[in-house]
Amino acid sequence: MSAVLDAHGRPAHDAHDHAHGPTPGWRRWVYATNHKDIGTMYLLFSFTMLMIGGVLALCIRAELFKPGLQFFNPELFNQFTTMHGLIMVFGAIMPAFVGFANWMIPLQIGASDMAFARMNNFSFWLLIPAALLLVSSFFMPGGAPAAGWTLYAPLTLQMGPAMDAGIFAMHIMGASSIMGAINIIVTVLNMRAPGMTLMKMPLFAWTWLITAYLLIAVMPVLAGAITMTLTDRHFGTSFFNPAGGGDPVMYQHIFWFFGHPEVYIMILPAFGIISAIIPAFARKKLFGYTSMVYATGSIAILSFIVWAHHMYTTGMPVTGQLFFMYATMLIAVPTGVKIFNWVATMWRGSMTFETPMLFAVGFLFVFSMGGFTGLILSMAPVDLQLQDTYYVVAHFHYVLVAGSLFAMFAGYYYWGPKWTGVMYSETRGRIHFWGSLIFFNITFFPMHFLGLAGMPRRYADYPMQFADFNEIASIGAFGFGFMQVYFFLATVLPMMRGRGEPAPAKPWEGAEGLEWEVPSPAPHHTFETPPKLDETATRVVG
């Protein structure tokens, strides 16, 4: 007996199943298979981890407020620096961008959901035990790992049981990342609406497609490095132990072969968000769309051949230093193409500066500064002096805090009305922006001078000559931290509770893309019938 089919050729009971809204109660979240719910959980999880990592950062800055040991012994201080890095990278930035991908990619390409809905659920829930393992390591014998977020041997071979918990947590997070990446690749390649060719996709979908390939390429490399560390610790191998013929520098090569593409995994989706926002508020098409796609691909490819610029001080031959120096400088070219295209998009545009645009312009300013200091550090003779000083800390915080985080804030203010169905308060958004920008620069700009003067990273104490800049940086850090609490209480919570002006389907006049064709808030099920697109693949016909 043949099944009864509905108008779309599906079994009729399926049509009925899909017609209703979300499951009520806790089951909606625990068993979530809807991309929007999973995206929301990723974003809330990453904000929680941002707060935990932020508290660790404030502990670090409280200790460095004055010379001498104030609150923590050096061992605990090193645990704070290590766990701050691990939690921020693997617990905050990466899951937040996956949350954005879950929410926006199906909406932008006209797909009904992500390709593998149950795997999507699994990849999120893996993060919870991993995060608990990481955070609970503080309470294990000997305390949390204290080897730096890079987990260099031989320190990792000497740590207590918390090191094993950290390795296990990173394996789980890596598995989650790989599953998320597979899901995004299959969704983008197989589930686009008819008429949306790859070269008509929004740049956010492009940057995430390329990021997903990077994740699949490099997460197994990290898994290999930490597995070798584990076997060195417990099973008598000597991969990184010189006493048994191993080589600690080999660990650095393997780690940074993962670690440098990882930096771009944390910034490419940000480029996609900024590429959506600047054209919307300049009310112009993005300048040089094709070159943006190729620039993103070029950055991803080049990211694999620059890893040893983190290792100029390991006794590398001059020829090797020259290769990695020139390869690193080369990455500035496609990055410069992106900056040029964003500025060209704004040129003579009818620009308005609502909060998403403020954060996007703030991103351009601070990310460019981080890029220039990166170019300086790419030069081997300069890096030999600045290696492991606060100049490096300033550089990568300008790229990651200002780059990734500001882009995420821009994305939240831009797409938040579509998610929640209400507008945020423009005044509160502006307070959040100006407070974050000013306090961020008060925190990290002085670190350039500290680094140039020779203050090393990861030290709990320092000579009196570094006191003034450290005091300024610590004051800025507390201000920056409070601004993010303000953001959650003044913007995120009211929007989640539906308090605010009702958002229209398209709150931004210049915005383009399929996500603005659905009502606000976006219904639980969207695009069950693939939309018919116009020639630009940005509007639904009929």
Automatic annotation (TrEMBL):
<dbReference type="InterPro" id="IPR023615">
    <property type="entry name" value="Cyt_c_Oxase_su1_BS"/>
</dbReference>
<keyword id="KW-0472">Membrane</keyword>
<dbReference type="GO" id="GO:0046872">
    <property type="term" value="F:metal ion binding"/>
</dbReference>
<keyword id="KW-1278">Translocase</keyword>
<feature type="transmembrane region" description="Helical">
    <location>
        <begin position="356"/>
        <end position="376"/>
    </location>
</feature>
<comment type="function">
    <text>Cytochrome c oxidase is the component of the respiratory chain that catalyzes the reduction of oxygen to water. Subunits 1-3 form the functional core of the enzyme complex. CO I is the catalytic subunit of the enzyme. Electrons originating in cytochrome c are transferred via the copper A center of subunit 2 and heme A of subunit 1 to the bimetallic center formed by heme A3 and copper B.</text>
</comment>
<feature type="compositionally biased region" description="Basic and acidic residues">
    <location>
        <begin position="525"/>
        <end position="542"/>
    </location>
</feature>
<dbReference type="Pfam" id="PF00115">
    <property type="entry name" value="COX1"/>
</dbReference>
<feature type="domain" description="Cytochrome oxidase subunit I profile">
    <location>
        <begin position="29"/>
        <end position="534"/>
    </location>
</feature>
<dbReference type="GO" id="GO:0020037">
    <property type="term" value="F:heme binding"/>
</dbReference>
<feature type="region of interest" description="Disordered">
    <location>
        <begin position="1"/>
        <end position="20"/>
    </location>
</feature>
<dbReference type="InterPro" id="IPR036927">
    <property type="entry name" value="Cyt_c_oxase-like_su1_sf"/>
</dbReference>
<keyword id="KW-0560">Oxidoreductase</keyword>
<keyword id="KW-1003">Cell membrane</keyword>
<keyword id="KW-0479">Metal-binding</keyword>
<keyword id="KW-0249">Electron transport</keyword>
<keyword id="KW-0679">Respiratory chain</keyword>
<dbReference type="InterPro" id="IPR033944">
    <property type="entry name" value="Cyt_c_oxase_su1_dom"/>
</dbReference>
<feature type="transmembrane region" description="Helical">
    <location>
        <begin position="324"/>
        <end position="344"/>
    </location>
</feature>
<dbReference type="GO" id="GO:0045277">
    <property type="term" value="C:respiratory chain complex IV"/>
</dbReference>
<feature type="transmembrane region" description="Helical">
    <location>
        <begin position="293"/>
        <end position="312"/>
    </location>
</feature>
<dbReference type="GO" id="GO:0005886">
    <property type="term" value="C:plasma membrane"/>
</dbReference>
<dbReference type="GO" id="GO:0015990">
    <property type="term" value="P:electron transport coupled proton transport"/>
</dbReference>
<feature type="compositionally biased region" description="Basic and acidic residues">
    <location>
        <begin position="7"/>
        <end position="20"/>
    </location>
</feature>
<dbReference type="GO" id="GO:0004129">
    <property type="term" value="F:cytochrome-c oxidase activity"/>
</dbReference>
<dbReference type="InterPro" id="IPR014241">
    <property type="entry name" value="Cyt_c_oxidase_su1_bac"/>
</dbReference>
<protein>
    <recommendedName>
        <fullName>Cytochrome c oxidase subunit 1</fullName>
        <ecNumber>7.1.1.9</ecNumber>
    </recommendedName>
</protein>
<keyword id="KW-0813">Transport</keyword>
<keyword id="KW-0349">Heme</keyword>
<comment type="similarity">
    <text>Belongs to the heme-copper respiratory oxidase family.</text>
</comment>
<feature type="transmembrane region" description="Helical">
    <location>
        <begin position="124"/>
        <end position="147"/>
    </location>
</feature>
<feature type="transmembrane region" description="Helical">
    <location>
        <begin position="472"/>
        <end position="493"/>
    </location>
</feature>
<feature type="transmembrane region" description="Helical">
    <location>
        <begin position="203"/>
        <end position="226"/>
    </location>
</feature>
<dbReference type="InterPro" id="IPR023616">
    <property type="entry name" value="Cyt_c_oxase-like_su1_dom"/>
</dbReference>
<comment type="pathway">
    <text>Energy metabolism; oxidative phosphorylation.</text>
</comment>
<feature type="region of interest" description="Disordered">
    <location>
        <begin position="519"/>
        <end position="542"/>
    </location>
</feature>
<dbReference type="GO" id="GO:0006119">
    <property type="term" value="P:oxidative phosphorylation"/>
</dbReference>
<feature type="transmembrane region" description="Helical">
    <location>
        <begin position="431"/>
        <end position="452"/>
    </location>
</feature>
<feature type="transmembrane region" description="Helical">
    <location>
        <begin position="167"/>
        <end position="191"/>
    </location>
</feature>
<feature type="transmembrane region" description="Helical">
    <location>
        <begin position="263"/>
        <end position="281"/>
    </location>
</feature>
<keyword id="KW-0408">Iron</keyword>
<keyword id="KW-1133">Transmembrane helix</keyword>
